[in-house]
Design a protein that fits this description.
Layout: E1 2-6, H1 11-23, E2 27-31, H2 42-45, E3 55-58, E4 61-64, H3 66-74, H4 84-112, H5 121-145, H6 156-170, H7 179-188, H8 194-197
Parallel strand pairs: 1-2
Antiparallel strand pairs: 1-3, 3-4
């Protein structure tokens, strides 16, 4: 059985758990992270020197970085086909989520939902604008595909984008009117595990 070190409130942990659910992979969630067991201890640092969740243990294999774990789990499945171009389309959106979209939501989310004092009002306002701009980019793309981020078929890219889209909607900011994103969320809501890992109580 897979062991996932992390906690459900973490968006990065939920990516991995949702991927497991979609692939019907049994797993055990071992509580680590803020409010659980402190990862900044030798036992955890031996698994991930960044002291971040999630970490995956699969027998003797240990992996960290949530999108990498999702790729590992979904390898050669319907969620991540082996075709070179098809896989590249999926992975480019996974990378966009990790590098572009995550950077945009951080000031607003950390301030408004996590109570951080790291960001001032101007940084939060700029972050909201940037976040909505990134979501508008996604909206235009989804309007072209008419379905999912990498085309007609649901993929692991939709897992990692999906939890981020849910976070955008759940954060108390002025949301841009994005009809293609709204339709996308409706499609995602019909996938197994969506309610559990993108529910209203898991921003």
């Amino acid at each position: 059985m897979l062991t996932i070190l992390g906690k459900l409130p973490s968006i990065n942990v939920r990516k991995v758990l949702w991927t497991c659910r979609l692939l019907e992979l049994p797993f055990e969630l071992e509580p680590w992270g803020k409010g659980e067991r402190d990862p900044d201890v030798p036992e955890f640092l031996a698994l991930n020197p960044n002291a971040q969740v999630p970490v995956l243990r699969d027998g003797d294999t240990v992996l960290w970085e949530s999108n990498t774990i999702c790729r590992y789990l979904a390898h050669d499945s319907a969620l991540l086909p082996s075709g070179r171009l098809q896989r590249a389309r999926i992975e480019q959106w996974m990378d966009w989520q990790a590098t572009e979209l995550n950077a945009a939501w951080r000031p607003a989310f950390m301030t408004l939902l996590r109570g951080s004092t790291q960001f001032g009002p101007e940084a939060v306002a700029a972050g909201v604008r940037d976040w909505n701009a990134k979501m508008a980019l996604l909206d235009r793309h989804l309007a072209q595909t008419g379905a999912y981020v990498a085309g007609d078929a649901f993929s692991v890219a939709d897992v990692v984008i999906g939890v981020s889209v849910h976070r955008w909607r759940a954060t108390p900011i002025a949301h841009a009117d994005l009809p293609a994103v709204a339709a996308y969320m409706e499609r995602l809501s019909r996938m197994p595990g969506y309610a559990e890992y993108c529910g209203d109580d898991t921003p």
